[in-house]
Model the fold of this input.
Amino acid sequence: MTSEELPDHEAQENLVEHVIDETEVDKRLDHWLAVQFPEHSRSQWQKSITAGSVTVDGHKVKPSYKLRLGERLAGPFPKPVLAEIPPSREIDLDILYEDDLIVVLNKQANLIVHPGKANYSGTLANALVHHFEKLSGAGGAHRPGIVHRLDRDTTGVIVIAKDDQSHDFLSAQFADRTVEKEYRALVWGRLEFDCDFIETHIRAHSKNREKMVVCGPDPEARIAQTEYEVLERFKDITYVKLLPKTGRTHQLRVHMQHLGHAIVADRLYRGQSNLLLSYVIGSKEHLKEDAVLIQRQALHAYRLQIEHPGTKERMEFIAPFPADMQRTLDALEQYSRI
Done:
């Protein structure tokens, strides 16, 4: 088979299946295929989709179809080759739990989960290839073991699959929303209610493709649902528990901004990249040097509850706060209590 042709659906005896995970939701099918399998052009993949050579949950779809969590793609895809990802020895991993089927990590800040066009190395995926001999390939060659995603500067619990069967089992839980996820965040201002439920449509920003925005019903939009609970109120900042019921890109960051209470130090959605000790104290007086408490969004994936793919036991994992988040909370407790 040359790069100019793709096999017909009926002629392909061994179609390869791929389950859509949280990292791939809302991607256009033709664009996703062109990125995953660049040996064929986007126009070639469009022809293949239109001809029915690539299906979604067994159905023929349009090239512009938006991928949804848990859907199964079937088509003449090359089988993933994990060796394509160069290992990164310099990235340390904070392992919360490990067995023969899964690994649970406490992800650090400033770490992208999987390679993209601008970051082929130095990602969590690169570190996984170095640290573990066996990883699932169900997510594609550039996502070894990756079942779901955290933003670059969001810290906390992330689960990794060591084989395809475990990957599919975990992905199905995310798709069926039986996974329980709890985040902790510091947000600007004082929330009106002690707890509330947020439901909006979310889509990509029309001009800045890095951002997501709340919008009305739209063919390009998806429903996003978040529950929140206030844990503690400080003078100008609120400490909250966030419980996402859906897994949209930047969902928690967008929802809090939509309420008028953007996450502290969220450069993309607030335009402010750090929180200084002098702000918490309310003055620089008596400070020999103003300290930076945190310089990335104050968002931490605190708790994850899943069903184990082997034992089927319900398991819960809690990630301790990183130093910057704990330092910020301690300063707020000391200087900014109401």
The helical segments are 29-36, 42-50, 124-131, 164-176, 251-258, 267-270, 277-281, 323-335. Confidence is low (pLDDT under 50) at residues 1-5, 7-13.
